[in-house]
Design goal:
Elements (H helix, E strand, L loop, with lengths): L3 H7 L8 E2 L4 H11 L3 E6 L2 E7 H9 L27 H11 L3 E6 L2 E7 H23 L5
Parallel strand pairs: 1-2
Antiparallel strand pairs: 2-3, 4-5
Length: 146
């Protein structure tokens, strides 16, 4: 199974959109909508301090009657944020996301944010690996592979 680093290198969009902890939540919502993404790592200076998602806004904003204009991202974000390193396996990431009910997983190396994985990224990778295995097994059965 691939590592996080291998998967990040293969992603077509490698840049990670982030939001400042003191930005209005409305700015985060606009950025997520404009980029068609569901979560943003939250930074303070250069340090990752949390993650904010559409789910966070729905639960901590809409359901509690809080304004996205008057409230900063810090009030909605999830903290502490769970992260992985580029050396970890895709299987480890899938297990962590499943166990913790997460949809987005920041990748940190040397204290720096280097990527972001979504559950969709991991599902695509798992399906590709299964397709490769099935193809290999079919070739083996037909005697095409030694």
């Amino acid at each position: 199974m691939k590592t996080v680093a291998q998967m990040l290198r293969a992603k077509p969009q490698q840049s990670v959109h982030t939001i400042d902890a003191d930005a209005p939540m409305l700015e985060a919502l606009r950025l997520m909508a404009g980029q068609n993404i569901g979560a943003l790592p939250v930074i303070e200076g250069r340090r990752l301090v949390g993650i904010v998602s559409e789910r966070d806004y729905a639960r901590k904003g809409v359901l509690q009657g809080r304004s996205s204009v008057a409230t900063v991202v810090r009030e909605f974000m999830t903290e502490p944020v769970l992260t992985v390193t580029p050396k970890q396996s895709i299987r480890e990431c899938m297990s962590l996301m499943t166990d913790q009910h997460m949809r987005h997983l920041p990748v940190v190396e040397g204290g720096e944010l280097v990527g972001l994985l979504s559950i969709g990224d991991l599902v695509k990778e798992a399906m590709a690996e299964q397709d490769d295995l099935i193809l290999h097994l079919e070739q083996y059965i037909r005697g095409e592979v030694a």
